[in-house]
Amino acid sequence: MPHQTSAPETFHRQMKMVNLPGGLFRMGSDHHYPEEAPAHMVHVDPFAIDETPVTNDQFARFVAETGYVTQAEIAPRPEDYPGALPEYLKPGSAVFVPPDAPVPLGAPLPWWRYVVGACWRQPYGPASSIEGLGDHPVVQVTHADAAAYAAWAGKALPTEAEWEFAARGGLEGADYAWGDNLTLGGRHMANTWQGQFPTENLEEDGYARTSPVRAFPPNGYGLFDMIGNVWEWTEDWYVSRHASDANKPCCAPRNPRSVDRAGSIDPADPAQIPRKVLKGGSHLCAPSYCQRYRPAARQPEAIDTATTHIGFRCVLRG
Domains (ranges, CATH) in the chain? Predict the structure, then answer.
């Protein structure tokens, strides 16, 4: 891997990465959500990937050295969000707030609340902080925030194929990163939701929100938190189904502002914000609602969105 100079060498020594050989693997699934299909063979070149999601401590180092200000800390411009209510034009971001009583699980999603003042330093709002959470994944970061960190560190965000190759840990076609059963011998293998979402979290895995990045066993490649804890940004634009041949450059997803692709943007979104692919699921994924704590699972997310359950990790290409 090339030697990096864009951040101090001591910082890079703290950022452990795992070298992966690349190769041909079966990406996607024909047995779960429709956007995961079709399962198809994809080749990825050798690359290295962060052993864990980027943590609060690591992101704080980036902010301290660059003065970077995340999007959640900047007031949205009215011209970018026509028709937005005034309370949504203040710095803040989306926070998960469990409803007091059962609610329908379809859209709109009443468990999300825009909280003024929520950002990576205070992920649940002004009364919260990341004190004592230095080894938890940073959250409340948009795609641009994640990309800025990656560029500072001399790295990049993974493609969806790189991310899924890494998450599988060498297990061809397994439902989970550790096999075909959600738990192993009754042990939870990732930080997900147990109980009736979104009102009842039994915390059988030990955590109600994020967890330290090495709290659960690594996958077959020695990577932690590829499943659960936080969703992770990738570099790919979202399309509603996989291309039939992802190895052709012509078929790689492009910015939906320049290409009309079904599923790329939400017709109900007046701002028409493009979406990137999220991978891995989060601590809010439950068997009763979002069964996306699997390598093949994928979800679109608006590139300007920051929430309490989205983070990222980086890659180096040789």
Answer: 1-318 (3.90.1580.10)
